Structure formats: C-alpha cells, structure tokens
Amino acid sequence: MTTVTLTCSVSVDGFATGPGGDLSRLHRWLFDFEANHALDFEDENMAEFRAAGALVIGRSTFRSGEEPWGEHDVFAAPVFVLTHTEREPLRRNGTTFTFVTGGPAEALALARNAAGGRDVVIMGSPDVARQFLAAGLVDRILLHLVPVLLGGGTRLFGELPGPLELVCDRMLADDEAAQLAFAVVHHA
C-alpha cells in the first residue's frame, strides 16, 4: 500500500520559511546556497525522498526551487505541482512536472497512479502541508528540525481543523538537522 509522507524543514520555533520567505538557513542541510548546488549525499535524510514513486509540491515550492535546482536532476520521480493556474506539463532535468488545479485529492490521486505502488512524498510549503493534513491525506510526517530560532517567517502548521495524533517512529540527528518521523494516527 502506498504511504503518503509529508516532508518539511522547520526551525525549532516552528517556521517553515524565514522572514521574507527566506529558505537558505532552513535548507542549508540539503543545499549549498553559496556554491548554488544540491549537496551530494545519500543518507537516511534523503532515502525516502529518492525512493518515492511520485512527489507533490506547491506552486511556491516550485517557483522557489527553479533557480537553485538549476540543471541538477533533483527529482527521481514525476512531480505534481498543486496550483490555481492551468499550465502544460514541463519536462526539465529528467523530470516531468504536471500542474494540477483540482486540489489536494486530485493531485494525490494522480501521484499515486504515477507512483505505481511506491510511496508518494509531499514536499510541503506550509499552505500545501495544511491542505493535505486538513483533508486527512497524510500517513507520515517527516520533519527536518533545523537548530535555529528564526523569530519570524511562515509557521509550518498554523491552524488545523483539530488535533492530529502522531506516533514518533524515528529520530536521527547531526549538526545541521534532526530528522523526526511520525506516523499519523487515522481514526476509523
């Protein structure tokens, strides 16, 4: 069965972007902004991401990543971009980006179909994360907790329709980020 994992970087004080939408400190564990290239490593932080059969991202994530991703083959699977604007699919760096206007359920249905039984990863902007969580479409949350207090920016979770029970199933840490994985408790 396909597992849907929401993955995000977040500061210790709960921000998914810094002031002004800045992502450089939160994504330093993943991307060398000074050299303008993705870091070359395959560890447990990246294993689930690279093994996914499809990914879902939001328009903001797509826009903010276009320049830093450059010509690197960042994604190993088809990417579905949740947006309000219709657009033809884009093929770039070996990846097809399909733009979906029908909301989280439609984006997830397309991603599951493309994944062929493999897992789906949602790379979250706060807005996309809240939409998928509110719709009950997430099985796991994988947070990259970055050891910084940003003091401002965009909160990752903000308001949700109600409490969401989680069970921690993994904790790893290095100098740049702690990885915390939680299973979402779905009540029947």
Your description of this structure?
By secondary structure, this protein is α/β, with parallel strands linked by helices. Helix content is 21%, strand content 32%. It has helices at 44-51, 59-69, 104-115, 126-134, and strands at residues 4-11, 15-17, 31-32, 37-38, 54-58, 79-82, 90-92, 95-100, 120-123, 140-146, 154-155, 166-173, 178-184. The strands form three sheets. Strands 7-8-6-5-9-1-10-13-12 form a nine-stranded mixed sheet, with helices on both faces. Strand 12 and strand 13 form a beta hairpin. It is globular, with a radius of gyration of 16 Å.
N-to-C SSE string, H for helix and E for strand: EEEEHEHEEEHEHEEEE
Assembly state of the chains shown: single chain
How many H/I helices? 4
Poorly predicted ranges: 35-42
Percent in strands: 25-35%
Name the helicity range. Answer: 10-25%
Q: What form results from the Cα inertia axes?
A: globular
The class by helix and strand makeup works out as alpha/beta
User: How far apart are the first and last residues' alpha carbons, in Å?
Assistant: 17 Å
* Main beta sheet strand tally, sense and closure: 9 strands, mixed
Mean pLDDT across all residues, rounded?
Answer: 84
Secondary structure tally: strands: 13
Q: Tell me the strand order in the biggest sheet.
A: 7-8-6-5-9-1-10-13-12
Question: What value does the Rg take, in angstroms?
Answer: 16 Å
